[in-house]
Each structure stands twice: as C-alpha cells, then as structure tokens.
Amino acid sequence: MLFRNINSNFLFTKYHNTNHKKIVLKKKLTLLRLNQRKLLHKNINTTPNKWIILLTTAVNVNGESEYRKKLYKTQILKWLKNTNYYIYVVESTGIHLNITHERLKFISFELPTMQFSSQCEARSRGEARSMLYLLDQIKDDADFINCTHILKVTGRYFLQNINNVLNKCTHNLDVYIQHHYNHNIKWQNTEYYGIRKNILNNFLLTVLNEGLIEHKFYDFIIKNKLTFSRIGPFKNNIERGGDKMLIRYL
C-alpha cells in the first residue's frame, strides 16, 4: 500500500511538473509572438513613407478648355503652396499650363484617340495610359527614384491638410484608399489613392488591359492581398469632370 501511494505521488508529481513546463512554454511562446507583433508594428510606424504627388489632368475636353485651365492652375498652386511634396502633373490633350516651380514637373502629350465600349472605360484606360507615359518620362528623376509611395489625385482636386494626414497615417502599407467603396459591386473610388511605387505599374497595366479602374482597383487589392488603410475624407466643393456629381467629402 505504501509503495502504491509513493508511486501515485511520483506519477502525479511527474505529471504536474510536465504540465507546468508546457504551460510555461506556452506562455513564453505567446509572449514571443506579442513581442514580434509589437516589433513589426513599431517598424511599420517608424519607417516613414517618402511621397510624391501625381496629378492627372486633361484640358481640352468637352469644350471646357478655359474652365479647366483656370481650375487646374488654381489647384496646382494650392499643392505647391500647402504641401512640401514634389508634384508631377501629366496633361493628356497636348496643352501646357505654363506654371514653373522648383517642386513641379509638368508633362503634356496628346493621348491617342481610341474606341471603347463606354465613356467610363475610355476614361479609365486613358488615365492609365497617361500615368504610364508619365512614369516612363520620370523614371530617372531623383525625386521619383527616392520616393516609396505615390499619391495619385485627379487634378481638379486639392486635399486639404494632406501633409498631416500622410505624416500621421500608418507607414509602409501597400495602398491608402478613400472611404467611398461598394463591396457588393466590387468598387473602390479612385479620385485619389496612395500606392507603393513598385506596384503602381502593374496596377495600371491591369487597367489598360482589362477596363474600368474602380473595379480593377478593388480586385487588385483583394487578389494581391495588399495591406491598406483608408484616409480622408477631405472636404470638397469641385464637381467631377464627367457626370458633374459633387462629392462633398472625398
């Protein structure tokens, strides 16, 4: 009886010690994972993005040349005055706005006329082609080479307080997107978006080859499992160029 009791105590003690070691090991692994997550979060937030701004413009459209010239000039000057980023502007109807600044590069060309199934498709593919043209023209520029991210904005808009927004957002993500989206139809607005430089070209080629930019952007984010954050909204009083819709907060 004594032997059996001693053996039972021994087995219990052995089991207890083994179980205790497992618990301690599990706690250590949990703590290690937490520390790894904290380190990753710290690295993401302390490695600042280096931004440039890319504005897309088209002056000679729908008989609005004079209105668009004035609007684009006004907005470009706001970008120069209220931010410290280098500004690239691409204009796709062959018209120059004659603005010069040490932080501005303006590139104009005539987008070839192409037939598309809809005005929306024409707009999307035209914008993609314009941006690809610009990227090819600036590929050797120091500001482009040194940047990590590009903020694309439709040239009729200025995003108030964008400096602070980009400085305070989570750094080192793949894309920074608007709050306007629709999961049901797989749609992500693109009046503006921030994107990691080294994936922009692939996205634009997708749009050029497959169509509507808002659908393609939504799909591009999902299919490539991109990390993202939503920025904005930004107060706005400028109508859209095509349907003249006014989005009060972009």
Description:
By secondary structure, the chain is of the alpha/beta class. It folds into two domains: 1-46; 49-230, Spore Coat Polysaccharide Biosynthesis Protein SpsA, Chain A (Alpha-Beta Complex). It is 48% helix and 16% strand. The protein contains seven helices and nine strands, in the order αβαββααβαββββααβ. The protein has helices at residues 2-46, 65-82, 119-138, 142-146, 162-168, 197-210, 213-223, and strands at 51-57, 86-91, 104-108, 149-154, 175-177, 181-182, 187-188, 192-196, 228-230. It has a seven-stranded mixed beta sheet, with helices on both faces. It has a two-stranded antiparallel sheet with strand order 6-7. Strand 6 and strand 7 form a beta hairpin. Helix 6 (197-210) crosses helix 7. The protein is globular.
List the helices and strands and how they pair.
Layout: H1 2-46, E1 51-57, H2 65-82, E2 86-91, E3 104-108, H3 119-138, H4 142-146, E4 149-154, H5 162-168, E5 175-177, E6 181-182, E7 187-188, E8 192-196, H6 197-210, H7 213-223, E9 228-230
Parallel strand pairs: 1-2, 1-4, 2-3, 5-9
Antiparallel strand pairs: 4-8, 5-8, 6-7
At the fold tier of CATH, the topology name of the largest domain is Spore Coat Polysaccharide Biosynthesis Protein SpsA, Chain A
What ranges have pLDDT less than 50 throughout 5 or more consecutive residues?
A: 1-8, 36-43
Strand numbers in spatial order across the main sheet:
3-2-1-4-8-5-9
Q: What does the largest sheet look like?
A: 7 strands, mixed
Task: Specify the overall morphology.
Answer: globular
CATH architecture of the largest domain, by name, is: Alpha-Beta Complex
What amount of the residues lies in strands?
A: 15-25%
Q: What do we call the CATH homologous superfamily of the largest domain?
A: Spore Coat Polysaccharide Biosynthesis Protein SpsA, Chain A
